[in-house]
Amino acid sequence: MPETEPAGDDRGALMSTVFGHMAAQALAAAVRLGVADRLGDHPRDAADVAADLGTDPDATRRLLRALAASGLATESRPGAFALTARGALLRTDRADSMADFVRMFLDPAMIGSWARLDESVRTGGPVFADLFGTDFFGHLAAHPELSRAFNASMRQGGRAAAALLPAVLDLSGARSVTDVGGGDGAVLAAVLSAYPGLRGVLFETPMAAADAGPVLEAAGVTDRCTIVTGDFFASVPAGSDVYLLKGVVHDWDDDRAATLLGHVRAVLPAHGRILVVEVVLPDTVDGTQPPMMYLGDLNMLVNVGGRERTEAEFRALCARAGLAVTRVTRLPEPVGLSVIEAVRAVQAVQA
Predict the structure, then answer these.
(1) Can you tell me the distance from the alpha carbon of 299 to that of 110, in angstroms, rounded to the nearest whole number?
(2) Which intervals hold domain O-methyltransferase C-terminal (predicted)?
(3) What burial class does residue 295 get, using C-beta atoms within 10 Å of its C-beta: 0-12 exposed, 13-18 middle, 19+ buried?
């Protein structure tokens, strides 16, 4: 028997968690249908929204009520709904839209493995391939539309970090930076925009880099940036004094991550730096990282076999690759990421 009986709010919190996946599916349906775009700037009747979408009027009203109850809309009179500031982030015509992020992270390819989380906990490995016949990134490569959606979601989800990184990285003395696994180039574009004298290399797979051209062009940095395609588990292009890896290392287990970092070290000049931008978990769950970071860690487990790491684990991982961590800098809130700066271990010892 427990020493104390659970309070009513504890029961309510558990119920909210249980129903949380339903709220997420309502959100996903709203994005796939384009509900936010149809609501626009002014209150609209559910029946009119349904007519625009070609959906059932009663079911549309019920979906809109659920969105209103979740804080994404308001119902000013029976059947009339308007977006809240939070719900407006689902519109696709906004520069700060989160629609692609929601669409990707609630796609069956992303959430399907979660139903078998217990199996991943038993085995310590991902279950994605059991469901889809290949690993997560192989699945993206075989589905170009999904790969583009993934790139778009990474761009939307990482917008705040991309805006803060240039100042935190301090690249004032650098001549060239290679963004390893940089997706569509959104982060590299932000860095190059902040440092007009810097040249950049985007290193990605052909599929992942397919949308990089327009992103770099929109930022006005194409004349200072080269796109190189390849496999970072085979090699990494030489020639830069700074190598940036944002949201890449956590996709892989320790063996694969150490291999990747080792390839970067192999081309790192004596004065060079590696900048790894990732979540850094505290040694204990102390409230300094929000729950979603720990859920993200489980997402790495079930889908790709990667993991989020503590500072001590990053230091050990870098040491395996012949690197020494010289600094760990937490990005300002609300971005829950840190910059792990590392150099060649020999250089660190001599210093």
Answers:
(1) 8
(2) 114-323
(3) exposed
Rounded to whole angstroms, what are the CA distances from 330 to 142, 150, 159, 311, 324?
Answer: 36, 25, 16, 11, 18
Active site residues: 250
Q: Which of 234, 102, 118 is nearest to 156 (CA)?
A: 102
**Rounded to whole angstroms, how far apart are CA atoms 72 and 65?**
10
C-alpha to C-alpha distance for 243 and 262, rounded to whole angstroms: 12
Contacts by 110-114, CB closer than 8 A, 24 or more apart:
110/299, 110/303, 113/302, 113/303, 114/299, 114/302
Confidence (pTM): 0.90
- Domains present along the chain, CATH in parentheses: 8-95 (1.10.10.10), 155-344 (3.40.50.150)
Residue with tokens 């705040």: 160
At how many degrees (to 10) do helices 144-157 and 159-169 cross?
60
pLDDT tens across 334-346, in order? 788 999 999 999 7
3-state secondary structure 175-209: CEEEEECCCCCHHHHHHHHHCCCCEEEEEECCCCC
pLDDT in tens, 278-329: 999 999 999 989 999 999 999 999 999 999 999 999 999 999 999 999 999 9
